[in-house]
Amino acid sequence: MTVTVRVPEELSARVPAEQRGPGLDRDAVRLLVSRGTEVTHHVFPELPRLLRAGDLLVVNTSPTLAAAVDGRIGHARVVVHVSTRGDDGRWAVELREPDGRGTTRARAGTHAGTEVVLPGAGRLVLEEPLSPRGERLWWARPAGDVLAVLRAYGRPIRYSYTERDQPLSAYQTVFALPSPDGSGSAEMPSAARPFTARLVAELVSRGVQFAPVTLHTGVASAQAHEPPYPERFAVPEASARLINAVRAGDGRVLAVGTTAVRAVESAAGPDGVVRAASGWTDLVVTPERGVRVVDGLLTGLHEPEASHLLMLEAVAGRAGVDRAYEEALRGLYLWHEFGDIHLILPDEGPHTERCDGNSW
């Protein structure tokens, strides 16, 4: 990315939109809209008027888990961020230290064999790093039911730019559905947070359709901005058919969040046809790989170093992302999961064609 500026601390959204003033709802956020390098400024309730009949929104139905829980290593206090359940019963976890302000900071010195005592007689034993890229996330063997521990003692993962702890309901989107096995996302699929039932109803009344997919997000890299790790996903047959039908017509396929992009692009063949799929995806969408299905994207504002920006660049092009972020900074838009939203629409000038998987 050529975006090299730092995001000022005061542009971090510290509380949910509905807590910023009386009478506000989740949709009380701003909406930056970019088409190529053209940028316009809106508010989120204007979304139905910015889309058109026949458009399709791909939404992530993963619920957010109370994925942070206190633990101890000997006499030392730690906070465990529980990320992803593996097929072998282990869990990927990140160990962090309390920072004295109600949040956490990175913890050094983690090693194989470390035992973490959890509330309710639960335990985790760290076995090996999740990836050779680093030792932030570890595979841990649990003694006891990790999901039961989270239900009883967990809280949503929170980072230092937020003002205070929030109830789990503040981290659930309107599209979240319970998973049969209790799985969910370690962190909220936050691009969907501003949607309300009222706004969804208005979109449907205007002919906008919805295709549900699932991608259980792992713990983000708050400091290191690493590429995403493999995550569980599912694209149902009905959603695959709907996406293909919209692509065959005049509608646009717009993903709500980078998680929805990862899921649907993982289910797309080189021919751009989406087929029902589920399991693990290690897909990293980059400008070199391109997008095969997605025409546009609703997303939050990401740190300039974040790997998510490569996905945005694959959808909008580098010049378009650079221009949008310049405007977001100039317009004092708010960042992070409670912040403002960026809508990337295809530049539909006379020479624009649907992406072929490599470029616009």
From TrEMBL:
Q: Does the keyword Membrane apply?
A: no
Which GO MF term does the entry hold, naming one? S-adenosylmethionine:tRNA ribosyltransferase-isomerase activity
Q: Which UniProt keywords apply?
A: Cytoplasm, Queuosine biosynthesis, S-adenosyl-L-methionine, Transferase
The GO biological-process annotations, alphabetized, read as:
tRNA queuosine(34) biosynthetic process
Quick one: signal sequence residues? none
**Is the keyword Protease assigned to this protein?**
no
InterPro entries cross-referenced by the UniProt entry: QueA, QueA_dom1, QueA_dom2, QueA_sf
Its recorded name reads Queuosine biosynthesis protein
Domain of life where this protein originates: Bacteria
Q: Which Pfam families match?
A: Queuosine_synth
